[in-house]
Amino acid sequence: MTISTEAHQPLPFSSAVGSLIEATDAIRNFRAIALLALTFIGAVLVGGVLTMLAGSMSSPLLAFFGGLMAFLVMFYGSNAVGILLMRDAQGQPGMSLVDAVLVSLYTSHRLIAVVFLEFLIVLAAMIAIAILLFVCKIPVLGPVLYAVVFPLSAIVLGVLVFALFYVMLPLAGPAAWSGASVFQIIARLNQIVRTKLVSVILLEVLLFLITAFVALLIFGVLGTGVSLTSGMSAGILSLGQMDLYAMATGLGRGGYGSGYIVAAGLGGGLLMAAAAVVPGLIFTKGVCIIYLGATRNVDFSASEASLNDGLATVKKKAEEARERARALAEQASAPAAPAAPAASADSLQCPSCKAPVASDDVFCGECAHKLK
Questions:
Q1: Which of 111, 277, 291, 340 has the fewest CB atoms within 10 Å, i.e. is most exposed?
Q2: Are 340 and 324 a contacting pair, CB within 8 Å?
Q3: Are the C-beta atoms of residues 25 and 289 closer than 8 Å to each other?
Q4: What are the angstrom distances between the C-alpha of 354 and each of 280, 349, 371?
Q5: Is 260 in contact with 252 (CB distance < 8 Å)?
Q6: CA geometry: angle at 132 spanning 131 and 137, to 5°?
Q7: Hey, how many other C-beta atoms are within 10 angstroms of the C-beta on 249?
Q8: How far is CA 306 from CA 18, 46, 311, 346, in A?
Q9: What does the alpha-carbon distance between residue 358 and residue 365 come to, in Å, rounded to a whole number?
Q10: Residue 366 above 80 pLDDT?
C-alpha cells in the first residue's frame, strides 16, 4: 500500500491564506455561540449586581470584587469558547459546554503565567538596554559606544514588541487551548518568532481585515434594519422622533411612548451584543488556524529541551547561591570558640610526685624526675 506524504508537507503560505476563510465557519458552531453569549451575560450580571450593591453600600472593596468576578467570568468563559473552536479547527469531536468550562477552569491559568513571563522577558531586555545606556555616559568613549548601542537597542526592542503583540499574546491562547503546558507554550512561541515571524504577522493582518469586513457587513445590515424599523415604529406607534439617544435614555413623547422606547433600547442592545459575538468567534477560530498552520509538522523537541536546560542551569545556580548564602549566614551567626586558657605557672606539677614545679625547671626538686 502506498502511503501519501501530502499530509506531512508544511502548509504553504497561500494555503494558509485560503484556510483563514474557513474561520467564518465559526458562526455555525452553535455551542461556541451559546457559550460566548452566556459568558457576556454572566459577566454583565455578576459585575452589574455587585457594582450596584457596592454603590448602595458605599464599598469600594465590593466594587473591586465585582469587577474582578466579571473579569474571571469573561476570562474563563472566553477560554472555554477558544477550546471549543480549537477542537473544531483540529477536526476533533466537539465537547459539551460543561466539559469545555471545566477544561478552561483547569488550564486557563497557564495563559496568565505565560503573559507574566513574556512581560518579564521584555522588562529584562529593557533593563539590560538601560544599563548599556548608562555605560554610554562615559566621557569620550560614551558617544562611540552609543553609535552601536542605539541601533542595536532599537532593533531588539522593535522585534520584542512586535513578537509580543503579534505572536506571543495572540497565539498563547491557541497554544494553551491545544493542551500545551506553560513552558511548552513559551518554547513553541519562541520558535515561531524565530522562524515564522513575518508570515504569522501577515496572516494576522489578513485575519483582522476579514474580521473587520464581517463586522462591518453585520453591523451595516443591522444598522439599516434598525433605522428602517425605528422610522416605521415612530409613525405607527406614535413615538415621535426615535433615535439612539431616545432609546438609550428611555425618553419618548409622553409616558406611553417611553415604554416602547425602553423596550426598543433593550432589544436593540441584545441585538448588537449578539452581532458582536460573530466577529469575536471568527477572530478566535482564525488565530487557532494560524497557530495550527505555524506549528504544522514542526519539531519543538530541540526548543523545549533548550528551554529546559536553561531553566535547569538557572535553577542550579540559584540553588548554589542559596547554599552559599546559607553557609555564610551560619558562619556569621555561629558563636566564637572560647580560647584555651593559658596554663598558669602556679598550676604546673611534677607528673611523678605531683610536687609544684616552675615552667623553666628541668628536673623536679623533690623526686629529681626529668621534666624536659
A1: 340
A2: no
A3: no
A4: 103, 5, 12
A5: yes
A6: 95
A7: 12
A8: 34, 44, 9, 73
A9: 10
A10: no
Say whether pLDDT at 81 is over 70.
yes
pLDDT in tens, 167-217: 888 888 898 888 888 888 888 888 888 888 888 888 888 889 988 998 898
Residues in the chain, overall count: 372
Cβ-Cβ contacts under 8 Å for 180 (sequence gap 6 or more) = 110, 188
φ, ψ at 297 (rounded to 5°): 55, 30
Enter the C-alpha cell of residue 3: 502511503
Reported as a single tens digit per residue, the pLDDT across 86-133 is 888 888 887 888 888 899 898 888 888 888 888 888 888 889 999 988
Q: What are phi and psi of 370, to 5 degrees?
A: -70, 125
Closest by Cα among 184, 359, 173, 361 to 280: 173
pTM above 0.70, yes or no: no
Q: What is the DSSP letter of 167?
A: I
